[in-house]
Amino acid sequence: MLTFWQKSTLLGCLMILVLLAGQGVSAVSPTEQVKSTVDQVIDVLRNSHAEGDARRAILSRLIRARFDFTIMSQRTLGPYWRQASAEEKKEFVQLYSDLLEASYIGRIEAYTNETVSYDSEQIEGNRAVVETVIHSGNTNIPIDYRMVQQKDGWFVYDVIVEDISLIRNYRSSYGEIVRREGFSGLFERMREKITEMHQASDAGAAAS
Amino acid sequence: MTVSINLRKVLLAILACLLLMATVARADDGSAPSAPDAAATAADYDWTQLDEDEQELQVSDPLEPVNRGIFWFNDKLYFYLFKPVARGYRVVPEPVRESVGNAFDNIGAPVRFLNSLLQGKVRGACYELATFMINSTWGLGGLFDLTPEETERPDAEDFGQTLGRYGSPPGFYLVLPFLGPSNARDFVGRFADSFVHPVSSPEYLIMKPLEVAGLQTYDRINALSLDKDTYEAIKRDALDPYLFVRNAYLQMRAARVAE
User: Fold this and answer.
1) Scanning every residue of chain A, which has its alpha carbon at the shortest distance from the alpha carbon of B19?
2) Of A44, A64, A78, B250, which sees the most CB atoms within 10 A?
3) What are the residues whose beta carbons fall under 8 Å from the beta carbon of B164, sequence distance 6 or more?
4) How far apart are CA B84 and CA A135, in angstroms?
């Protein structure tokens, strides 16, 4: 029989082990998090029977759980973010999320039949870069995800396709549009684009 | 009784180890933030600034009105000429088109070899020379790419990158009719490379200008037939496709020069 002393020591050890295990669960690697999102998105694109808005809602939930659109908005507007009013910021984040989401789905959709490999990840403090490659025919398309660690996991804040950072590209384009046409001009263009993209993806889904 | 004493010692030892680990882990926290700390810094961080390894894209586009005109022309050319032809050409089986693509890729090796050499990239130069020799002979004029799959392909070097490597700035942005985005530096680079590229060179193959243009167009159509509507995706996604293509080109070239 174990003495009281032994029992309590054992209990203490178990508690510490449980605590350590709990930490292990929250420390899912950035690669695993990207992979699970990409896999789920591709699965919905291939197998889901939902259409139009219903399908978009499912994909949107998956994507918003992994992409931090607020950080992406801040990086895209750069100096203009600091000048924007609270309403303008809110409106921009909303439109930009819809736009990036539609564009991300469109890109992934074209590659649903290709294989994605997860090559390597570099973690530095609370930032990470996950390197993936899409193998399509005899060409390989490198796609890197830049991620930041938050309370509830790793979040994507930039996507780099063949050396081209999406955020840096949009940063210069959007900056130029705000400079020329103001926020109202930018929002108008964004709204038009979102409608256009939704129509295109509905037509594409109906055709396939 | 001795057994239970031993058990007690072992358990104590485990406990001590775990406590030690926990202390060490806490000591580490000072340098490497744990998850909650990281979240705090992520929220406080000024995300409107780019990362240290990223530079604000420098754009010089004094010819924008002209460039936009040529961009418009190239756009129409793409949708009403090149793309329909490429689509029709898809009757040729894909493996054949891939082989044609390989051959065009292979014949550009002298340009990549020379520019790797000029930039002191020994591995790239060796790779280009070796693959060119092997694929041109055993690969039947480059139709078959015999490079082992696990060999990592070096970046394709050209004279625009060589100039950049030695400090030349990109200069103003240019859209070339038929050829697409470029800049002052890369335009000079392209001109210089055309003397080295076997198809356009005045040496070795010696083709008439019309034959050169024909081959270059065929290369383009063949590549387009294998492409997955990249340009269509840009047109669909971008608020202003001209700005998107311009910024993407300048960003890609800056990254290529830095590599």
Assistant:
1) A16
2) B250
3) B170, B185, B253, B257
4) 26
